[in-house]
């Protein structure tokens, strides 16, 4: 049985302030938890319903295990329908971004993406297409937001995400800077080459004017129908797919 202080602590991690203060975030669902266990992330503790115990892999002795009941899980879960297993994970120490890692590959850059689900889906998409890193503006939603973590479906354990002041960062890089805008070159006519970054903007406002001025290769996903815009996560998937198609030619 969990104490009131344990429940209170876990519930506090639903908020960004306390995740940052304690250096811990929440993941839920056996599949995602197993992927984090197998990654470089450090697991703090795992809370599980009895019927899920057999699904847990062999765990290091330093991971605390707590068998809980449905009522307790309902109190600590961030989900309307809890998935039976919840884990607390240590937030890694922030690392400085190595600009040389941009050479010879493609990376995504996110300028002010605000929806946690969109960010999580973009991370999962990047993982699917083999993009190893994403660079976010400082005003992009936090990657450890529970909705973001849930939407990555474990891919956060494999994709490196950094936060940078984009205008300064972009002035220093030596690879092509592609940007998804409404009036660029069609992606079907774009020569992607074998390296670069691809910038996607805020859901409502797009890429900020300051960052647009730093784009060397504006690109557009051609519109055929009447929709006013594309969801940013869908745009990321289309761009990643087209880049991979060209790399495999």
Automatic annotation (TrEMBL):
PANTHER family cross-referenced by the UniProt entry: RRNA METHYLTRANSFERASE 3, RRNA METHYLTRANSFERASE 3, MITOCHONDRIAL
Q: Which family does it belong to?
A: Belongs to the class IV-like SAM-binding methyltransferase superfamily. RNA methyltransferase TrmH family.
Tell me the first and last residues of the signal peptide: none
Coiled coil spans:
none
Question: Gene3D superfamilies in the record, alphabetically?
Answer: 3.30.1330.30, 3.40.1280.10
Q: Which GO terms describe its molecular function?
A: methyltransferase activity
Name-wise, this protein is RNA methyltransferase
Q: Which GO terms describe its biological process?
A: methylation
Output the InterPro entries linked to this UniProt entry: Alpha/beta_knot_MTases, MRM3-like_sub_bind, Ribosomal_eL30-like_sf, rRNA_Methyltransferase, SpoU_MeTrfase, SpoU_subst-bd, tRNA_m1G_MTases_N
UniProtKB keywords: Methyltransferase, Transferase
Tell me where in this chain the RNA 2-O ribose methyltransferase substrate binding domain is found: 26-95
């Amino acid at each position: 049985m969990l104490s009131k202080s344990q429940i209170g602590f876990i519930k506090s991690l639903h908020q960004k302030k306390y995740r940052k203060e304690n250096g811990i975030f929440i993941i839920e669902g056996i599949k995602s938890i197993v992927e984090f266990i197998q990654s470089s992330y450090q697991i703090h503790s795992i809370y599980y319903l009895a019927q899920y115990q057999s699904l847990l892999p062999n765990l290091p002795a330093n991971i605390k295990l707590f068998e809980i009941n449905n009522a307790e899980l309902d109190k600590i879960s961030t989900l309307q329908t809890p998935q039976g297993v919840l884990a607390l994970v240590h937030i890694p120490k922030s690392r400085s971004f190595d600009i040389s890692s941009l050479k010879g590959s493609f990376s995504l850059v996110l300028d002010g993406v605000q929806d946690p689900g969109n960010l999580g889906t973009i991370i999962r998409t990047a993982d699917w297409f083999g993009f190893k890193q994403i660079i976010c503006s400082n005003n992009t939603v936090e990657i450890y937001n529970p909705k973001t973590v849930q939407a990555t479906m474990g891919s956060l354990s494999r994709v490196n995400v950094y936060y940078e002041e984009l205008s300064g960062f972009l002035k220093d890089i030596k690879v092509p800077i592609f940007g998804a805008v409404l009036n660029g070159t069609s992606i079907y006519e774009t020569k992607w080459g074998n390296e670069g970054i691809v910038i996607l903007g805020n859901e409502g406002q797009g890429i900020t004017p300051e960052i647009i001025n730093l784009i060397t290769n504006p690109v557009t996903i051609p519109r055929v129908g009447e929709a006013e815009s594309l969801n940013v996560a869908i745009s990321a998937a289309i761009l990643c797919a087209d880049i991979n198609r060209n790399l495999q030619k």
